[in-house]
Write a structure and sequence with these properties.
The complex is a heterodimer.
Chain A: E1 7-10, H1 14-26, E2 32-35, H2 41-48, E3 52-56, H3 62-71, E4 78-81, H4 88-97, E5 99-104, H5 109-156, H6 161-175, H7 179-193
Parallel strand pairs in A: 1-2, 1-3
Antiparallel strand pairs in A: 3-5, 4-5
Helix pairs in contact in A: 1-5, 4-5, 5-6, 5-7, 6-7
Chain B: E1 29-34, H1 41-48, H2 51-54, E2 58-63, H3 67-75, E3 81-85, H4 87-93, E4 104-108, E5 111-112, E6 115-119, H5 120-130, H6 138-154, E7 161-164, H7 170-181, E8 191-194, H8 200-205, E9 211-214, H9 218-224, E10 228-233, H10 234-237, E11 244-248, H11 250-255, H12 257-275, H13 280-288, H14 297-305, E12 307-309, E13 316-318, E14 323-324, H15 335-347, H16 355-362, H17 367-374, H18 407-412
Parallel strand pairs in B: 1-2, 1-3, 7-8, 7-9
Antiparallel strand pairs in B: 3-11, 4-11, 5-14, 6-9, 6-10, 12-13
Helix pairs in contact in B: 1-12, 5-6, 12-17, 13-14, 15-16
The chains are: A alpha/beta, B alpha/beta.
Chain lengths: ~200, ~425
């Protein structure tokens, strides 16, 4: 019978790390250690001697890991992986998602691949969430700009709020531009002209 | 770590930029990875100031955050070429590290740029212990450090922790060389750790490390922040010491000989441009930009001129040749230098010596490809090997001379080295 794989997740982003941890546990892996900080990493690696280390490739601390591996004289030499060495598109997907892994040499590919695939898909899901959050934030920013442009128009053209908004919308349609872009130009022009 | 952002292309999910994915038929797109350091100048200038375009090459630069990423993304064909530490191709040739796949270096990116900085507290203690005036040589500074370490031992204090950048780096070998020249054993008398360069001054000021050896501009940044004291520069340890190279996969070089030749020509022109004193200000402005090094332009400029402030009190030191990007065959990939790197790997227990391994290590540097591209110019060396450290103005800090023909004899002269089999990196 195969022994259970011991897996370490090193990610300074706690939320993302816990999403991956959850995924691993759902897939039946119960030997999972999560680390957020480079401090104590060496000791943890020594203690748990993981078969697989999943790591965020945006961290410059990867080089410190390389040093740790160089220091250990153990036979269990970890090798760097991006999911599958032979498959270019999966490597690209992993880099794009921002995840890499160290895998103990000699471990069968079939055993590791599902873990890495899962890590890649969860990293991706996480960045999608982040993108959505960023979009939501910029939508909020747009609304604020439109409010300011409306205020400027109301004051300088002596319009009601509804009239100001209608003027903005009409201009955007005429110019084939986004409402927020027109609003942005008005706010900028007002700032330059000091009105 | 959020303060290293890779701002070139954020369309991907991660902050790391993806290189242009599609290679158009017939075009000469070259995707190059780099780490934000002043010694990436030649590569950056080749792309930024049109030297690559003039050779019909579209040089697409991709900023990365770690040498391990650079190595892996080159190996996995995300990059065609990369800005690399000179020891990386040698390590790959010898199968060292966690992803050793073949890398060759046909072009060296110049000399210089490193320095060793200690915390102001540690330096103050050296000053008191050894009566330093602040104008001592790098060797005397190391000897003063030795006295302090002896004192620390007697008092049962914890020994200094020193940062460097990567196990296979010029910084690792230079730091070790400097320590050992003064009788400090880098494995036993200090603790060496890896600290990513942009984090060095934070780590120093937080007391996580007591000193470090990294490339520009990070030493000067630590001094400017009032936390560090520069005690040695690369020139003090060995002026010719190889620093960064352009690395590529042998198979890419074989399949794209014309592109590689053109790239070498572009890099050669860019290197000459970088060395022209009148261009240094413009270079500093380009490098300082966020998409490259993202550091204060004033510091980058002074680093390029070799005008150092060595301590927070404003002590000045000028190292005129702190950066040589082109002159004196600075771009020539000397096989003897690859073998010197190998000798350091043996000295510090990263590998063992055998004549065949030494030859293999030397083959990572490819002067033949360099000559192939640039033809027979009077400034291009005819030999692949030379005696290293033998020239008047090019000596090692301890006066050693390196002859690649007899590495065992060279290594025998060093009392301090990692004993075989017990070693650390």
């Amino acid at each position: 019978m195969k022994t259970a794989l011991s897996i370490m997740i090193f990610d300074e982003n706690r939320i993302r790390a816990s999403i991956i941890e959850e995924g691993l546990r759902e897939a039946g892996h119960d030997q999972v250690v999560v680390l957020h900080d480079i401090v104590g990493l060496a000791r943890q690696i020594e203690l748990t001697s993981p078969d697989v280390i999943v790591i965020d490739i945006e961290t410059p601390n990867r080089d410190m890991l390389e040093h740790l591996f160089q220091l250990t004289r153990s036979v269990r030499k970890p090798i760097a992986m991006f999911v599958d060495r032979s498959d270019t598109s999966s490597i690209e997907a992993a880099v794009e998602a921002g995840v890499s892994a160290y895998v103990v040499d000699g471990l069968k590919k079939e055993r590791v691949k599902p873990i890495l695939d899962m890590a890649v898909s969860r990293f991706k899901a996480f960045s999608r969430l982040q993108q959505e959050l960023a979009d939501a934030r910029s939508a909020l920013e747009e609304r604020k700009i439109i409010e300011r442009a409306k205020g400027i128009l109301m004051k300088s053209r002596k319009l009601s709020e509804d009239e100001a908004y209608a003027l903005l919308r009409q201009t955007a349609m005429n110019e084939k531009k986004k409402l927020a872009d027109i609003a942005q130009s008005i706010v900028m022009a007002a700032a330059i002209l000091g009105s | 770590m959020s303060f290293i952002r890779t701002g070139i292309d954020r369309s991907g999910g991660s902050g790391l930029a993806l290189p242009a994915a599609i290679r158009r038929e017939g075009s000469r797109l070259v995707r190059a990875g780099f780490i934000p350091l002043v010694d990436a100048s030649v590569l950056i200038v080749a792309a930024e100031f049109g030297f690559a375009a003039r050779e019909g090459i579209e040089l697409s630069l991709v900023k990365d955050v770690s040498w391990a990423n650079i190595r892996d993304r080159l190996a996995f064909r995300q990059f065609d070429v990369a800005h690399m530490l000179a020891p990386m191709p040698v390590a790959s040739a010898l199968g060292l590290g966690s992803n050793p796949s073949p890398v060759i270096a046909p072009f060296s990116l110049g000399r210089g740029g490193n320095a060793i900085t200690l915390s102001v507290q540690l330096y103050r203690r050296m000053r008191a212990k050894a009566g330093l005036t602040g104008h001592e040589s790098a060797l005397l500074n190391a000897k003063a450090l030795k006295l302090v370490i002896e004192d620390m031992r007697e008092k049962g204090e914890s020994l200094p922790v020193l940062g460097m950048t990567y196990p296979f780096s010029s910084h690792n070998y230079e730091l070790r060389y400097w320590l050992a020249a003064a009788g400090i054993h880098p494995d036993h008398d200090v603790k060496l750790v890896v600290v990513p360069p942009p984090m060095t001054s934070d780590a120093l000021s937080a007391g996580a490390i007591d000193g470090f050896c990294v490339g520009a501009p990070w030493n000067m940044v630590a001094v400017e922040r009032g936390v560090g004291r520069i005690v040695a520069v690369k020139e003090d340890i060995w002026p010719s010491s190889p620093e960064k190279v352009i690395g590529t996969r042998p198979e890419w070089a074989e399949q794209n000989p014309e592109t590689l030749s053109r790239l070498i020509v572009a890099l050669d022109r860019a290197a000459a441009w970088c060395d022209t004193p009148d261009n240094r200000s413009e270079l500093a402005h380009a490098l300082a930009e966020q998409r490259y090094i993202d550091a204060p332009v004033e510091i980058v400029h002074r680093v390029l001129l070799g005008k150092f402030t060595t301590d927070p009190d404003g002590t000045e030191r000028t190292v005129p040749e702190y950066f040589s990007f082109h002159r004196d065959s600075a771009n020539f990939p000397w096989v003897s230098q690859a073998q010197w790197i190998f000798s350091q790997m043996v000295r510090w227990g990263q590998t063992t010596y055998a004549p065949a391994i030494a030859a293999h290590a030397g083959s990572a540097f490819r002067p033949d490809l360099y000559r192939n591209a640039l033809g027979s110019r009077s400034d291009i060396p005819q030999d692949d090997m030379r005696i290293e450290g033998g020239a008047m103005d090019d000596g090692f800090i301890d006066g050693a001379i390196f002859d690649a023909q007899d590495i065992p004899a060279y290594l025998q002269r060093f009392d301090i080295q990692t004993s075989r089999g017990l070693g650390s990196a």
